Write a sequence for this structure.
């Protein structure tokens, strides 16, 4: 999950230890590790078992998880749960390598699922899902995609982050704009109309910040709006062969040039940090922004007087019939290799990810999107009005996630590095640059075992 007020967490990183240890994990698989064929049974009602749960939650968020685990224990009194926060993927990986893992692991890094599944570091949950007839149709395909790799389901989704558009209502009214943009041409037009500059060109208010790499402006959160594909049917990088990527980068560079790169840099350097109270949109210096549903919680606490609306993010003009598309990522949960109480651990995992009441309570407490259809349409959801469009995006057939890979999010990092070279003018031949980017990604995949 993205951080809520008071939490420093962010998912824009790749655990260095996990990347370094990927090869070690892959060679360390043992019988009964990631590809179990006979799922462990749940403990008998009179069998006392202790299950350890590790996550990177802290403070208030850890308390929300504890409430869910307490509810589980109330209905399973023989299963005692030790809930330990502040445990990131690096620590989880170290524990697996050291032969002393938790029974249940919760991760905020969906990009690592390819490594977890292919190495056997997290056990295959497929046999459990099949044995217990878990209804996976309750979970959107895009969410199922980021919790498995090459047919191995080594994780289940536990809440999601969905991306949409935030807009300042007061600024819209002053500019005579009556509704949020639905297409990228409208977004660019509104951005220009809403921008306020000094006579020397200095930006005082930006209608929209087109700078990739700033705040939530990351390629994986923009790609679904153009329908851009990361890989082709053969599994090769397709940024040069899918014309949607050229359209995305062309649109983005034209808006960068409207502002001027130096002007844009000076403006963004004067804005607050992404999760601080003076973040650009919250401070009224940015009129529109693409961001996750978690921003509603920040706004409620840090900018309660800001009049804002939310909507699905605009889509490419040629894809206007896909309006409602959006990016999704989220928290994942699984059973590490070597877990001492795998049968009981699965009962905890199943409860936190498929029990409608549990998922709704977690969503209400953590201000994230529930990951089952039953929970996302539950009347018991108690979230702000502006949360509604994110639930609409979650239900869209055009919801999209990034593909899992054995190289984690390295291909996204390569793309963001390319984007920086492109937007600063260092790359002038877009087609040639994207072809080189594909080669770089494909070579990394070959080294990482795809």
């Amino acid at each position: 999950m993205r951080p809520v007020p008071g939490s420093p967490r962010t998912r824009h990183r790749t655990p260095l230890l996990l990347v370094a240890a990927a090869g070690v994990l892959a060679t360390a698989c043992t019988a009964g590790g990631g590809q179990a064929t006979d799922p462990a049974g749940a403990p008998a009602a009179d069998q006392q078992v202790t299950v350890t749960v590790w996550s990177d939650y802290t403070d208030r968020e850890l308390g929300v998880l504890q409430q869910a685990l307490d509810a589980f224990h109330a209905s399973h009194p023989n299963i005692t749960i030790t809930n330990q926060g502040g445990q990131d993927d690096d620590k989880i990986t170290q524990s697996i390598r050291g032969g002393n893992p938790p029974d249940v692991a919760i991760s905020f890094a969906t990009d690592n699922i390819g490594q977890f599944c292919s190495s056997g570091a997290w056990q295959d949950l497929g046999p459990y899902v099949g044995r217990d007839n878990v209804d996976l149709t309750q979970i959107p395909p895009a969410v199922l995609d980021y919790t498995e790799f090459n047919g191995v389901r080594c994780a289940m989704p536990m809440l999601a982050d969905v991306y949409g558009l935030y807009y300042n209502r007061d600024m819209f009214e002053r500019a005579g704009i009556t509704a949020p943009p639905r297409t990228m041409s409208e977004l660019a037009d509104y951005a220009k109309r809403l921008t306020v500059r000094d006579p020397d060109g200095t930006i005082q208010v930006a209608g929209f910040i087109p700078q990739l790499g700033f705040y939530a402006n990351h390629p994986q959160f923009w790609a679904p709006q153009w329908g851009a594909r990361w890989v082709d049917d053969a599994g090769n990088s397709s940024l040069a062969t899918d014309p949607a990527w050229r359209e995305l980068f062309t649109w983005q560079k034209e808006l960068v040039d409207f502002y001027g790169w130096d002007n844009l840099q000076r403006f963004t350097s004067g804005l607050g940090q992404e999760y601080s109270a003076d973040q650009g949109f919250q401070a009224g210096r940015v009129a529109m922004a693409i961001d996750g549903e978690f921003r509603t919680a920040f706004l409620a606490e840090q900018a309660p007087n800001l009049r804002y609306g939310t909507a699905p993010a605009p889509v490419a003009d040629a894809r206007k019939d896909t309006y409602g598309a959006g990016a999704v990522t989220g928290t994942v949960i699984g059973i590490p290799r070597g877990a001492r109480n795998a049968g009981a651990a699965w009962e905890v995992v199943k409860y936190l990810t498929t029990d409608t009441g549990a998922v709704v309570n977690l969503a209400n407490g953590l201000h994230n999107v529930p990951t089952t259809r039953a929970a996302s349409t539950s009347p018991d959801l108690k979230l702000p009005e502006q949360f509604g469009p994110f639930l609409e995006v979650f239900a869209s057939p055009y919801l999209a996630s990034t593909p899992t890979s054995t190289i984690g999010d390295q291909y996204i990092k390569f793309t963001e590095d390319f984007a920086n070279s492109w937007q600063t003018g260092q790359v002038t031949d877009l087609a040639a640059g994207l072809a080189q980017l594909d080669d770089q990604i494909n070579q990394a995949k070959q080294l990482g075992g795809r």
